[in-house]
Design brief:
The protein is an alpha+beta fold. The radius of gyration is 23 Å and the shape is elongated. Helices cover about 30% and strands about 25% of the residues.
Amino acid sequence: MNLAERVIDLAIQIQQIPAPTFEESKRAEFVRALFARENLDNVSMDETGNVFARLTGSGNGKPLIVSAHLDTVFPADTDLRVTRRSGLIHGPGLGDNSLGVAALFGLLWILRERRFVSVGTPLSTTSSDIWFVANICEEGLGDLRGMKAVVDRFGADVQAYLVLEGLSLGYVYNRAVGVKRYRITAKTAGGHSWSDYGKPSAIHELSRLIMELTSLELPSHPRTTMNVGKISGGTSVNVIASEAWMELDLRSEGQESLAELVRVVEKIIRDGTKPEVKFEAEVIGQRPAGEMDANHPLIKLAVACLHEQGLDAVLTSGSTDANIPLSKGYPAVVLGVTTGGGGHTVNEFINTEPVEKGLEQLVRFAERVWGIGKA
């Protein structure tokens, strides 16, 4: 079994352990045991549920932090069976982000095997520590809680934060999309669908609010989006609903654009309230925006490492764990392991052939930032 196959095999083992956001503990314990088996230093789990392990360098420079999130978007009872066909492997959560977690070990295995800088000039002058981190709560309402704890621990005193995502090979995430999320609840007196006909329904009122919100014209530059991702309410088919709620996701590449959208949305919600209809808006998630200049040495290095594998490099934006360090002005970048599709659906798949190149670009990036063998 070559190294890429070994990493894919480990990714499948990880994928088979359910890990919905807020329920990552079994997967975290599995990864902690693997870190211990690798004889890494300072293997531990923090109060948040993140798993840490240190590959000790020979110098005293700033560490490189390499992380991958443990959680998935899928409920614990999801059918996680894996199917293979030529060049493809299907499995919910396999690419996002079981392969990213497995790549922590792939990176470790290759670095240990080489113990030297194989290509290019390192950014650092000594081989400092690498911290491998498997963190929780990247998805959905996890609100990047795991990564917040990671950044609280290491702060600005790092070479860089390298975030691994299984399905993002060929992309260099240097811009963090700002996000604000609400749970919006409509409340009315309700009643009987026949005898109380004409009284306001929470479902009808919430539907009108959704239509008004989704009719807003959003800017394309900076890219700004809105999505109603979940809706629920009512009691029975013959009952005028007394309560209904939805979850609303607002995003923008521009902080000012997001702030303006938030202002407009909150005004629409306030204006929707009337004597017989009450709207309540609760903030359930917030992710800060941030950016590293395309000319930053870290970004240029990430692009170069992709080009050396014969791969195109696209600078892009996204809402990832990198939002936290980027929002604080700390050096951070997101890199992928392979290509695939169907992310966040049960039809998710990875392409197996690019994994080898994906691992190699990660190793070259880490070699030059870490400065292996330069002490």
